[in-house]
Write a sequence for this structure.
């Protein structure tokens, strides 16, 4: 069974893959990775080892899948490694493969793909779904536009209780409520905004529809933070070094990032990287502290 946050992310991957015609390829690649994970004991032990840092396990996924599979495949597996317990990675990957394998050749059929969810589960699904939809946006200006459109739609709902009642009323068919939403905003917003607004209705029961759309605005702001990588170094990095670092981070986090170098005299050799929820300490100071701790345990 899929965790709700992974289900939301996987549904967004499936939707996009259906629309661009790659659904069969992504499903086959996830199936192959799932079988490899079961068959290869070293790989399984590495990805299920809770003592191995998440960034290291995601690095293993990047080494195996980036440039050898579609980006959506690598991104989905990396997401699973990041959000579920290490021991649950194999079963979660297998469950995600099942969802993709059963995705119909028509995106509309995915409307019925969601099992019932309570309020907490619905929020988690929206978080996972929104992360993938926003991840697919490459232009910063487009991300800003989606944030603005979500905010404005939340205000429209806030000011129109009758519209809010229609969209919240589960006595109306889901497809009918989505049609109402689409008729209202489709021609005025970006496709990503329409996808996010529609998925809120699909995800499950929600206590506060306006509050949920306002929360989506906050998720867009979080995504913007993931696009910037703060790199602390005691010396400047060359353009080539910054470019290679940006490429390496793209492999890890599944999105384009802008490297922002901060000269920090307290960094002793190497660099420290922070982007979104990813933190990498590659400094000499860290290695010294680890050696010191090892020495202290031996005396």
């Amino acid at each position: 069974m899929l965790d709700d946050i992974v289900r939301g992310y996987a549904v967004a991957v499936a939707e996009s893959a259906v629309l661009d015609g790659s659904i069969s390829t992504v499903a086959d690649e996830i199936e192959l990775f799932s079988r490899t994970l079961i068959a290869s004991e070293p790989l399984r032990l590495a990805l299920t080892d809770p003592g191995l840092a998440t960034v290291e396990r995601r690095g293993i996924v990047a080494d195996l899948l980036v440039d050898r599979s579609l980006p959506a495949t690598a991104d989905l597996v990396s997401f699973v490694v990041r959000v579920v317990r290490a021991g649950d990675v194999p079963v979660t990957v297998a469950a995600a493969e099942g969802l993709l394998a059963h995705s119909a050749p028509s995106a509309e059929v995915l409307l019925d793909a969601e099992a019932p969810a309570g309020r907490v589960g619905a929020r988690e699904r929206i978080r996972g779904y929104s992360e993938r939809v926003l991840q697919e946006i490459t232009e910063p200006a487009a991300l800003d536009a989606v944030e603005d459109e979500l905010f404005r739609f939340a205000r429209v709902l806030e000011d129109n209780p009758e519209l809010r009642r229609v969209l919240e009323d589960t006595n109306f068919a889901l497809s009918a409520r989505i049609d109402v939403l689409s008729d209202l905003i489709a021609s005025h917003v970006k496709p990503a905004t329409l996808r996010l607004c529609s998925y809120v209705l699909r995800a499950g029961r929600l206590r506060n529809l306006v509050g949920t759309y306002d929360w989506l605005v906050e998720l867009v702001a979080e995504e913007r933070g993931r696009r910037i990588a703060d790199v602390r170094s005691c010396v400047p990095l060359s353009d080539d070094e910054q470019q290679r670092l940006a490429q390496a981070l793209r492999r890890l986090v599944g999105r384009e990032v802008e490297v922002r170098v901060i000269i920090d005299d307290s960094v002793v050799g190497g660099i420290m990287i922070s982007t979104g929820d990813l933190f990498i300490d590659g400094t000499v100071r860290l290695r010294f502290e680890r050696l010191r701790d090892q020495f202290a345990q031996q005396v």
